[in-house]
Amino acid sequence: MTETAAAQATQEAASLELTDGFHLLIDALKLNDINTIYNVPGIPITDLGRYAQAQGMRVLSFRHEQHAGYAAAAAGFLTKKPGVCMTVSAPGFLNGLTALAHATTNCWPMILISGSSEREVVDLQRGDYEEMDQLAIARPHAKAAYRILHAKDIGLGVARAVRAALAGRPGGVYLDVPGALLGQVMDAVEGEKSLIKVVDPNPASVPGADAVARAVDVLSAARKPLIIIGKGAAYAQCDDKMRELVETLGFPYLPMSMAKGLLPDTHELCASAARSLVLKESDCVLLIGARLNWLLSHGEGRGWGEKGGKSFVQIDIEATEMDSNQPIAAPLIGDVESCATALLDAIGGNWKKPDESWTGAVRAKVVGNVEKMAPRLQNNNSPMDYHSALGVVKQAIADHPDTILVNEGANALDQARSIVDIHKPRKRLDVGTWGIMGIGMGSAVAAAVETGNQVLAVEGDSAFGFCGMEVETICRYKLPVCVVIMNNNGIYRGDNENWSGGEDPATTSFVPDSRYDMMMQAFGGVGAHVTNADELRQAIAEAFASRKPTLINAVIDPAAGKESGNIGNLNPQSVVAQARYPQAGK
Q1: What is the 3-class SS of 461-517, one letter each residue?
Q2: With contact defined as beta carbons under 8 Å apart, do 177 and 28 qualify?
Q3: Cα(198)–Cα(156) distance, rounded to whole angstroms?
Q4: What is the DSSP secondary-structure string of 79-91?
């Protein structure tokens, strides 16, 4: 055979090589640097997970789709790449949809890929297996939603999803994958050509010169300025630039919960321990990647001082965020790094920092409140209260600042947020904008997988109930996760009574003295049962040293908590109910 004939034969043989929807989807994800999938196997995506694992992707299987989704959402926040969750159709999709909406609400990039029934059956409502128009259901809860019907369009569909998840304000994207698509076959060469590598999915968005000048004018006129840093600034991963901006301005700052550690909570400008003072007294607020939503009382009431007494400067990638609750005197539309750079360039070397009468008063309040709190964090009572337990957690994080703290609950969340200092960026994951319970174990898995760091998950016993079965997932993958359950026998408090006087337990009560530690032991992890701060300190130290999956059942005084943590005001009240049930005031 001549050399030319041999080459032609090779080309003809290559043209006969085939690929399918399974492998095109995997190749499209890998081409876009997505190498981890969080999923629950089942029809019709079981083999997709197997093939992905065989092709070198890391595929982590959960016990429930919601927690696989929470893991993908947290991965998006930590990595600035879309976290991918893969679910089965209908019920599995609906379970994952909660997490997708959670990612969208928090502005984190995530892609939910779900198998689905065939269009020709769904559209005529012929009663297919798990028949559901998933695309229509997903759209209101996602930044974007797409369906792929042909194998040749898989590359396009994945590229659309990646770009939509990352561009501008990040969010969740739904990608609908009918089961028949995965088995579709096409020429391998043509299939490879159909794949798309997304280029520059989120280019810098630089604010206009007039907007920057206006912001500088407003900031320079302030006498009692304040910076509020949101998780959008932490997501941006321009940590050095953020620190330079804060220190150049010299303003006291409040970090929102997942922005804690962007600058250390122990920084001299951190005003977390003087929150009430700075919110009430400040005359100008610079918002960086933070929204004036319910978490900040919409910028009025509940500690904000006189209505209309503040000027707001806001940095946000989304123009429609401006004026959402308060008039923004100087909007800066752009990504955090570009806006911070533009402000620093405009300020130059002539910036006059706030008067010591303001910064000194804030610092004095911080020092005084920290000193006042310190003795409460050092008691060794048995059973513990939240302060003694969280005093141990605070020290553990200080000693191991690379540890990622995952936190959810009512009292366990609210008090940890104010007590436990975070020292490095993106080392705290919690319930986010919705205040949603059940994110704990999914977030813990993602934190361990995406960073390799030790994870410490501080959970209320109620919050743990939403996601507790995922401790088996933690054990199966041998992840360095230490779970501390603040066990006070109930929701808010463990000493509640049935107001009817009947035999049923109160609606907020659990089985007293539950041994959650035995759950972890059942799956091969380490369980510990502790009743005082010294025992808790020892158990955490052993978990960190071994990096083994560990669950510590920390016994908390049932009377230590309070109703609804720090947001009890959101519970509706009525004079009729208060008159009928005087127990409500106790």
Answers
A1: HHHHHHHHHHHHHHHHCCCCEEEEEEECCECCCCCCCCCCCCCCCCCCECCCCCCCH
A2: no
A3: 10
A4: HSS-EEEEE-STH
CATH code for the part of the protein at 209-368: 3.40.50.1220
Residue type, 384: M
Neighbouring-strand partners of residue 176: 114, 147
CB 95 within 8 A of CB 87: yes
**Residue 94: how many other CB atoms lie within 10 Å:** 17
Contacts of 352 (CB under 8 A, 6+ apart): 220
Half-sphere exposure of 28 (CA within 13 A, CB side): 26
Sequence spans of domains, the chain: 15-194, 209-368, 378-580
What is 15-194's CATH number? 3.40.50.970
- Chain position carrying tokens 């000027």: 311
- CATH topology identical between 209-368 and 378-580: yes
β 526-530/550-555 pair status: parallel
Return per-residue pLDDT of the chain as tens, 586 residues: 456 655 554 455 455 699 999 999 999 999 999 999 999 999 999 999 999 999 999 999 999 999 999 999 999 999 999 999 999 999 999 999 999 999 999 999 999 999 998 888 888 888 888 889 999 999 999 999 999 999 999 999 999 999 999 999 999 999 999 999 999 999 999 999 999 999 999 999 999 999 999 999 999 999 999 999 999 999 999 999 999 999 999 999 999 999 999 999 999 999 999 999 999 999 999 999 999 998 999 998 778 987 778 999 999 999 999 999 999 999 999 999 999 999 999 998 889 999 999 999 999 999 999 999 999 999 999 999 999 999 999 999 999 999 999 999 999 999 999 999 999 999 999 999 999 999 999 999 999 999 999 999 999 999 999 999 999 999 999 999 999 999 999 999 888 889 888 999 999 999 999 999 999 999 999 999 999 999 999 999 999 999 999 999 999 999 998 876 667 667 777 777 777 777 665 5
Give the pair of three-digit tokens for residue 132. Answer: 């559901």
d(CA 34, CA 32) in angstroms, rounded, equals: 6
Residue at token pair 């919601």? 66
Give the CA radius of gyration of the chain: 26
Instruction: Pick the closest to residue 477 from 446, 440, 438, 439 (CA basis).
Output: 446
CATH topology of domain 378-580: Rossmann fold (3.40.50)
CB 219 within 8 A of CB 353: no
Q: What gap in Å lies between CA 371 and CA 364, rounded to an integer?
A: 11
Angle at CA 554, nearest 5°, toward 548 and 556? Answer: 165
